[in-house]
Structure formats: structure tokens, C-alpha cells
Amino acid sequence: MSDSASAPDANVIRVGTRKSPLAMAQAHLVVDALQAAFPTHSFPIDSMTTTGDRDQNTALYNFGGKGLWTSQLEDKLARNEVDIVVHSLKDMPTELPDGLVLGCVTERGDPRDTLV
């Protein structure tokens, strides 16, 4: 096999996110912005269900760890299974794992999206 056959395509940026409807909507907003800025690239979305999604009954303090909605995606990033991960900032731990950085934060949308 030649090197070019096994090398990743530099024009393909794999985007990791959760499978929840909100996470998917946020990932699509990011992908749309990236696609507009980099029209020669593609941004396939790789979604997954995280521990925080699967177990909705256990109290958060009983998990004993951080990143119920983020750590498994960060593991995929560390294993080079995705190139970037889209998280809701509210789900991010205050300290990132070694080797990971917060690459950007999108512009805030209209905060008046609540119906009382």
C-alpha cells in the first residue's frame, strides 16, 4: 500500500459531537460556518451517545468524575478518531485534559429564546 492510500485526507475534518438533538444542531451550525470559510473541505459529523446521555437517573454527584458529556468525545479526539469536537460550553470541565485546547468559541446567539 502506498503512503498516499493510508494518509488522511487533509481536506476532510472529522467533527465529533453528541447525538442529542441540541448537540447535533450546534454541530451543524459549526460545520456550516466552517464550510463557508473553507469551501474546499468537507466536515463529516461523527456523533455518539455519552455516559451523560445514557444515564439520566443517577444524580450527577454520584458519578464522581468530570465530563459526563465531554470525556468520551475527548477520548476519540486523543485517539485521532475525530479531528475536532463541538461541545456546549456549559458541559465543558473547568480544566481540560492534557494536550487539548479550547480552539474557539462561536458568536453567541440571541439569548431571548425562552418561552415563559
UniProtKB/TrEMBL annotation:
GO molecular function, one term: hydroxymethylbilane synthase activity
Pfam families: Porphobil_deam
Pathway noted in the entry: Porphyrin-containing compound metabolism; protoporphyrin-IX biosynthesis; coproporphyrinogen-III from 5-aminolevulinate: step 2/4
Residue ranges constituting the Porphobilinogen deaminase N-terminal domain according to the UniProt record: 13-116
EC number: 2.5.1.61
Reported cofactor(s): dipyrromethane
GO cellular component, one term: cytoplasm
Protein name according to UniProt: hydroxymethylbilane synthase
